[in-house]
């Protein structure tokens, strides 16, 4: 037997334990080990039933995802053991009880469903998250799950990929019993209880498969939902097809259909990109000079300066994580407005079913609104979220210097200003760090953590760790103007404006990028964020503009007219009372007039040009940022863009996308754009170098990690 699987006995009950930390993934050796254990149990007359359990904190989190990378790269063959082993186990005459704690995800749930019974700890979760990796369940998950949970729930779980909790799994029939306390002891007792009774085989249970009439509506609704909510992704629709096969074909034939679809998905570009994102989101937590063992500061209480849109959202983030938080404003009206928005946001979350009323009530109790700094001296972390202006930020930090306790973290939510300059307002620059939340802060997953020259390692380690507790993906970035995300977003939005000035309609620019997969087009994003934000920043940095280099004009002019975007009812678009965007012919007329005045020739512009110019503007700036070491790795940039800027995860992020196009091709196109449009398109030296060496950004990451 492999050393990844242990077989022991508790009198007449065999116990199979998977020992493959950290998540008991089904790596090579695990299916073989289970298989050998099942054979032994079958032969052992002293064994009446078996329990299968995972060691450590979890059952089985699924197939070993790293193996998929090797398989599609042709470095290894897919395991031929797992699927037949499941069948052998199901055919074992002695009942096998699956004891689930932590997570039974993907192949883990498929393993559990091939057992005869399932018991679970109340805190356990089960799910088929494969679609999030661009694949579908590949070991009969789409065939066994509808047999246990019914078609509607199975379609939802396989197509959306979200886990369910143990109590719901019990209600649905995926799990047979919840066990409080010692799971193994409870599972062994359960096994003893059912031993001697016939062992039910999931694959033979057809009573929940429904009729064609009942199922037709379920599949139509699921497809509609997938097209809307997982726009552009192939795997959800593929998963629905596989579950549909379960309802139309005998089990074995259904498994064959599932297998074909699984293999097709596995080799797809979308799956490779999503697997890159899965590991990327974990890679970003690793900071070469801030090792895992670095001491951290316990953050048990927090304080936020500013109850505006960002401050309010950040306050909710702390409260949602169970951390008591003070939120300060300068006058009562602003404080009341801030608290009203927080309450309204919570009410909406309850309406949408995201939170229970009780959860919200508890969160609100954790929030203390205030007009003074009273109590700030006790906070472990203070986040400044005031208006974006250096003078004001410095004033706040000099006040914090006086009030905050000696080892408190002093964080700024600035999106563009220098953390080093802000830190100068205090005599403890080691405590100062940037925590750049994205709007709406309580929803967006990204947290850019900005390291200043003097930021202490403990402070960095704390913020990285805290980001996970806050439900965020924390990415460490260097202190340059706009940090990583906004520094790249500048060229992206600049090109969008240039394209409009050169004759592309606002809707054509947004439409092309939406079709590419962006959550929103760049013009609509500008209107949402407020065009005046960029306008103010541009005014602050105008002295840095190089003479003779083309600057975008349209947005500044829209702002001069008071068209700030959604908040003023007009920007690039007009907005109705429900903030729905309506194309505005007046904008088209104005932009073409401004272009004529500036001597810009308007012309027909293709979708391809729109996408190339906007996305390659991201890539080129990203390459510069990487070379200047403001991002640790290309994958960090990808994670930033996916979690903070609505970049489609199935394209892997802008740097991964460039790798898939081929850096030589990207570089050549950028050279072309340089020749056509001048200085802005100077190719980044790193891009040029990698393209000439036939390398990828992924190679750069690999070289850097050596
Ligand atoms: C599948 O099952 C296909 C099947 O249908 C079979 C077809 C034949 N493989 O997330 P964490 C690593 S597809 C390899 O930080 P947490 C992870 O990279 C699979 N490695 O912990 C990290 O490594 P490192 C379907 C994995 O407690 C470490 O474990 N299953 C895998 O926050 C800790 O992970 C899924 O999609 C894996 N399957 O969250 C589940 N899982 O320390 C994927 C984790 O070096 N996993 N690692 O950075 C998860 O969702 C979370 O890891 C989990 C734990 C919730 C389980």
Q: How is the topology of this model organized?
A:
Elements: E1 5-10, E2 13-18, H1 30-43, E3 49-54, H2 65-72, H3 82-91, E4 96-100, E5 103-105, H4 107-114, E6 117-120, E7 125-127, H5 141-149, H6 151-160, E8 164-165, H7 166-172, E9 177-178, H8 183-194, H9 212-229, H10 235-248, H11 251-266, H12 269-283, E10 302-305, H13 309-320, E11 325-328, H14 332-351, H15 357-366, E12 367-370, E13 381-384, H16 390-403, E14 409-412, H17 419-423, E15 432-437, E16 446-451, H18 457-469, E17 473-478, H19 485-501, H20 506-516, H21 522-529, H22 531-541, H23 554-560, E18 574-575, E19 581-582, H24 585-597, H25 607-627, H26 634-644, H27 654-661, H28 663-677, H29 685-692, H30 697-705
Parallel strand pairs: 2-3, 3-4, 4-6, 5-7, 6-9, 10-11, 10-13, 11-12, 13-14, 14-15, 16-17
Antiparallel strand pairs: 1-2, 7-8, 15-16, 18-19
Helix pairs in contact: 1-3, 4-5, 5-6, 5-10, 6-9, 6-10, 9-10, 10-11, 12-26, 13-14, 19-25, 20-25, 25-28, 28-29
The chain binds (S)-3-Hydroxyhexanoyl-CoA.
């Amino acid at each position: 037997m492999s050393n990844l699987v242990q077989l022991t006995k508790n009198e007449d009950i065999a116990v199979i334990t998977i020992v493959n930390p950290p998540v008991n993934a089904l790596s090579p050796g695990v299916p073989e080990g289970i298989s050998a254990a099942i054979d032994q149990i079958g032969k052992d007359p002293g064994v009446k039933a078996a329990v299968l359990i995972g060691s450590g904190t979890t059952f089985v989190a699924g197939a070993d995802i790293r193996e998929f990378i090797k398989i599609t790269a042709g470095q290894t063959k897919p395991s031929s053991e797992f699927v037949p082993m499941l069948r052998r186990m199901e055919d074992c005459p002695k009942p096998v009880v699956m004891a689930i704690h932590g997570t039974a995800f993907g192949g883990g749930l498929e393993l559990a469903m091939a057992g005869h019974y399932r018991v679970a700890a109340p805190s356990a979760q089960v799910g088929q998250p494969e679609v999030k990796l661009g694949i579908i369940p590949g070991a009969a998950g789409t065939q066994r799950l509808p047999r246990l949970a019914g078609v509607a729930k199975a379609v939802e779980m396989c197509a959306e990929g979200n886990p369910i909790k143990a109590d719901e799994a019990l209600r649905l029939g995926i799990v047979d019993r919840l066990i409080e306390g010692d799971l193994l002891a409870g599972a062994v007792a359960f096994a003893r209880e059912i031993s001697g009774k016939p062992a039910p085989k999931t694959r033979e249970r057809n009573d929940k498969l429904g009729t064609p009439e009942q199922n037709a509506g379920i599949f139509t609704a699921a497809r509609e939902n997938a097209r809307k909510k997982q726009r552009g992704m192939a795997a959800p629709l593929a998963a629905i097809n596989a579950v549909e096969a379960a309802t139309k074909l005998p089990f074995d034939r259904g498994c064959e259909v599932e297998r074909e679809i699984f293999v097709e998905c596995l080799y797809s570009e979308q799956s490779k990109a999503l697997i890159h994102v899965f590991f990327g989101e974990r890679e970003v937590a690793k900071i070469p000079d801030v090792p895992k063992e670095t001491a951290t500061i316990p953050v048990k209480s927090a304080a936020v300066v500013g109850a505006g849109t960002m401050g309010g959202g950040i306050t909710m983030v702390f409260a949602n994580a169970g951390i008591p938080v003070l939120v300060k404003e300068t006058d009562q009206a602003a404080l009341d407005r801030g608290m009203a928005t927080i309450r309204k946001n919570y009410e909406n979350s309850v309406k949408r079913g995201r939170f229970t009323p009780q959860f919200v009530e508890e969160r609100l109790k954790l929030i203390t609104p205030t007009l003074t700094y009273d109590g700030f001296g006790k906070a472990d972390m203070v986040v400044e979220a005031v208006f974006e202006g250096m003078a004001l930020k410095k004033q706040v930090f000099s006040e914090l210097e006086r009030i905050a306790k000696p080892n408190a973290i002093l964080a700024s939510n600035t999106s563009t200003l220098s953390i080093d300059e802000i830190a100068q307002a205090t005599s403890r620059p080691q405590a100062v760090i940037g925590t750049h939340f994205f709007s709406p802060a309580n929803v967006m997953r990204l947290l850019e953590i900005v390291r200043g020259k003097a930021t202490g390692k403990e402070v960095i380690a704390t913020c990285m760790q805290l980001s996970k507790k806050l439900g965020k993906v924390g990415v460490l970035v260097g202190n340059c103007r706009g940090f990583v995300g906004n520094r790249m977003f500048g060229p992206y939005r600049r090109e969008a404006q240039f394209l409009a000035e050169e004759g592309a309609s606002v809707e054509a620019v947004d439409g092309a990028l939406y079709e590419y997969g962006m959550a929103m087009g760049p013009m609509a994003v500008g209107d949402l964020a407020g065009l005046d934000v960029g306008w103010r920043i541009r005014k602050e940095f105008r002295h840095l503009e190089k003479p003779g280099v083309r600057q975008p004009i349209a947005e500044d002019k829209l702002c001069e007219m008071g068209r700030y975007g959604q908040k003023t009812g007009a920007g690039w678009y007009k907005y109705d009372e429900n903030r729905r965007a309506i194309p505005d012919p007046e904008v088209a007329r104005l932009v073409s007039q401004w272009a004529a005045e500036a001597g810009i020739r308007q012309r027909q512009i293709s979708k391809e040009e729109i996408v190339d110019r906007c996305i390659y503007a991201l890539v080129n700036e990203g390459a510069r940022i990487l070379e200047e070491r403001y991002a640790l790795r290309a994958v960090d940039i990808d994670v930033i863009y996916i979690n903070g800027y609505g970049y489609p995860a199935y394209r892997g992020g802008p740097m991964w996308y460039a790798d898939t196009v081929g850096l030589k091709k990207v570089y050549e196109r950028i050279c072309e754009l340089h020749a056509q449009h001048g200085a802005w398109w100077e190719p980044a030296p790193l891009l040029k170098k990698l393209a000439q060496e036939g390398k990828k950004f992924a190679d750069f990451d690999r070289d850097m990690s050596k």
